[in-house]
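writing this on my phone so excuse typos. first protein, seq and then structure
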Amino acid sequence: MAILGEIRKRSWLLLGVIALGLFAFLFNADTFDKMFSKNPNVFGQVNGEDITRDEFNDQLMIMQQQAQQQGQPAKGLEEQAWQVLVQSKLIKQQFDKTGLELTDEVFWSQLQYDPIFAQSQQYFDEKGNFKLNDIKSEIEKSQATSPENYAFWLKNKKAIEYRMMARMLFGNITSGITTSKKEAELMVKFRDEMANIDFVKVDYLEFSKKNNVKVTTQDLADYIKAHPTRFKATASRNLAYAYFPASPSAQDDAATLNEINKLFLKGTDASNGAENFQNTTNDSMFVELNSDIPFIPQYVTSDQLPQEIKNKVATASIGQTFGPYKEQTLYVVSKLLDRQMKPSDSVSSSHILIAYKGAERSQATRSKEEAKALADKILAEVKSNPAKFNEDLKQSDEPNAVERNGSVGWTTPSSPFAPGYLSFLASHKKGDIGLAETNFGYHIIKVDERPESLKYKVAHIAKNIKASDKTENQVLTQATRFIQQTQGKSFNQFKNLAEKNKYRFDNPKTVGRFQGTLPGIGSDKDAEVIAWAFDKKRNIGDTDIFTVEGTGDRIVAYVVGKQDEGLADPETVRDQIEPIVKNKVLAKKILEKINAGKYASLDQAAKALGTTKGSAEVNVFNPSVNGAMEPKVAGAAFGVANNKLSQPIEGMTGVYLVVKKSVTTNKLPGDIKQITESITQQNSQQFTGAFLKSLQDNAKIKDYRIEVWDKNPQQ
């Protein structure tokens, strides 16, 4: 009790101690950061919906893997991954608002049209049928036997679902896009009517020669504020850098040539000089063990061979060698291993398309089952009597099939054709006739031509011409001297010294935190340079030196400016908008002069403004005024009454005064129905991009990546 009593007596003191402790707790740097900083597991929000670190990493991994499969760089995809996620969230939000639903049944039925599957023939059988059951079976099997593969499928499935939602959403909305008769009639009027005008033009370029104007930072800022949507800026850095490549010296080049000659003529150290590229009995193994590029087992055409040997292999004997020769940054020796006639990838084919209700671009009313039965019937007829192919073309649902004899011309595996169709061609020879299914329907395909070509199997040993340690040290000395000379100096001093010494210099003004690569460099060190520039401690004028691993190249970077999220910094976009803003400044001066003159006629205006009167025919769809595109002038020409002087018009290339003399009509081909269909099709094609941009412009998008990127995720 005594202790409790003592506590009661001293409660006021304890409260003070607690308060002091809390105060210290609150202002401890680490604790303060934890309490008030963003959740490191959340990279941003789209209309209040989180984009999590895990979602971002999953999307990035998918894109990196796709890039690797396509032979594209897998680095620098962070910003693309972010944009895909933002757009995916926006699409799903709209998808849910419209009441659409992506059921399992719809998902599996649409899977074959997703780019991951549609662009790969391995998912289709020889008849062009999608191997859905095989895919489902493989997924189920991975769930039980390979959790890693199954987890990867689930990540891909989410991305596929977003793409399916986009197709369904855009398809539903664009199907409702129509064109009224009035709109079509107005377009025909705009197309056919020509206004005959006289005009006076005060040309911006000519006016500036006598009235010099300087575009100030405030002029640029005013223009940006007037067009805020166009100049929304994410956080960026204005960076300058000098690049010091560790290029191989003449001595380095000679050393590489000696190295490859040893492998070619003398022998490897591993064989004590007994085995070289000329006498080896296992070319593939020799290449794998001694070359900087791998052995290529495929047969290739002469056009696919290095320039040095492409015209020599046709007459060479098997086993003949070529080189050493230079191929970009390599010294190469090549050996002809074999030559054979092989089927060409180019195929000429014809087809009869039997579509069904619901197939892509189809206007057919038959069911899928009826289409399959008809296709099988035609296939049987044509196989028993190939001459019937042309007769059965009359049943094809493809427009103008009879006139073209069903021909689709020449295609290759990379042609933009339905995968099922290309899959059939890949596995058939000239004269073969068979059936393939695509999203357009059933195709009875006849292979018309598939020529053979001479192909070669060639082994290459190659060695990269690299900079030696001595060369790299010389580059380090040069870069170190440069950074010592520019530390604490202005950007202009940094730039002038780099250019004076003829170093590689660049100054990208809007480097994003997650763009991954630097313009003009593209090295493995780019991401580190960008991260350095965005460090909270970084100040304008800071410099640092970076070493590119594996090459010995050096980068000396300089922070020129810092752009926070919001409207773009005027000086950052000066190169982009200065010509436009300069014309606006000139236009303002010209308009003041014209308005002060109160001219009653074009002749009076021309004399006072020191120019001449001109004539032209203008059209709303082709607003060319003596070679200058002037849409505002064309609009004014049709808006002003005949023989009346217009108000001054601020055009693209000058300020105009216009008098319309008459309007003539030149009726062009195309009736209202054709114009209506054309406008509807054009609007539908343009809608998707415009709709998505509108969603993004009006969304509340919050990006926390810069703040939380380097923080450890919470468990």
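second protein below, same order as before
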Amino acid sequence: MQSIYYNDTFETQCVIIVIMRFLLFKTINYQLNNKIMMKRLLCFLVLVIATMTASQSFATSVETGLLSKSGDGDAIYSVVWSGEFTTTYTATPYTGLSATYVDSLGIVRNTSLTFIKGSEVMVSPNCPVNAGVYTVVAKPFLTGDSLDQASATATLTILPATLSIDNSVIIITKFYDGNNIAEVSDKGTVNGLLGYDWVNHQVDAYFDNPNVGSDKDVTVFYSISGPKAANYVLAASQKTLNHGAILEDMRADTTYGGENGVNQGIEVAAYGYCAGNGSIVYHLISGNPNQYKIDFDDPAFPDVNWTNLTTPGNTGTIDINFPVGIATGDYAATLNFRDVNYPSLVSPGIRLSLHINLPETYVVPLFSDVIALIDTCHCLTDVQWYHREAGETLWTLIPGANDYVYQQEGGLTGEYFVSCKMNGMDTYTCPQQDMTNLINDNPVSVKVYPNPTTGNVTVNINNSSNASHLMSIINEAGVVIETVSFDGDTTTIDMSRYNNGRYIVSVDGYAVKIVRN
């Protein structure tokens, strides 16, 4: 409850009363029968009383407190009261501000408060809750012309509350894009709001310039908006972050490699990959990466996590280990680059397609001058043989070599592989190497007897570490006509079921010729 204390000087009142009594006594005694004099006396008394009332004034004092919303017991904002007159204000929760007037007789009278800020005017029990400077006029609820003018004036300042924007996340590194805007990945949270207030908050960040470089300053700006924003100030409206960086973009050079978004900027092996180590060549327009990673679409193919490049730069070679036993076919993947000093900056993904070949066991030398493609799946078509001598890097297509069996005049030398279709899909065989060792010095040997034969033959495999074996019978056209498995080192075949001619018996890829008479 606020009280407006009326300042009434007792001594002054006493003097006036003495004078009035003296004048009244004299008039009664000497002018008792004079009516005109009586009227003059009454007018004089009224004038004195009015003058006494109009001369009343307010003393001065200042008090600081908290202002509460009407209907809400939680104090909000900070309030500073100041004025030229004696007023004591104490905020009253729930009902807002109010005041009383104490007259000269000690009678407490209700008093109204009027709050004025520009064109905004409100009268108690309403009271302001928004930040700003208000003129407060206190007047008693009295009647009479002279008493209607009694009032006290003070200044009410509602100070804005302080907010902070915390835990915002600014990305201070980026690839060059021609502007100085830094990414704000999380605007953070606003702390310090009172009651049921809410505000919108905005966080913006800028590099000191848009050019490529490191050790850049990034300035972060904070702001608030909304109906209640004027009631708050930010503890900090900006801050500066150090060690920002703008890097050259690491984009694929599409003038190299494939098209339609696959293998662009990438050179892969023209004839596919085999188990073991392989490599791809990459070409970037710009940037200076020192790490790469490969994420394969097929879970059967192991991903390559971030790995150091052999030679950092925008052009180089990536070595890949292709696991033994991976199935033949095409494998799609995504290739990314980065600079390890700025691990959050990852290049756009380059789509990569790799082909895994059929193993070299599909190509088997039968004799010193004959090599065969073993079609165990009965699914290989469109055969084409290739050859290169030892020490050569380029493969040579052998014209007219389109059968399952190829005979090389003068004997087999160097390496051979086959391009073909497997169930309609383009594929290759891994190269079969060292023809001389395979033909003459193979520590694992297969014997078939009797040979030639008209009926049953015995097949024996020596020096093999396998407990189980896969055996195929191949005709002169290179077509597998029968495939069986057996355990141990020896099995038998009934050749009487086949027409007369030459055949190949292949056990685990090791072959021997047999003649059916």
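Helices lie at 10-30, 35-54, 435-440. thats all i got for now
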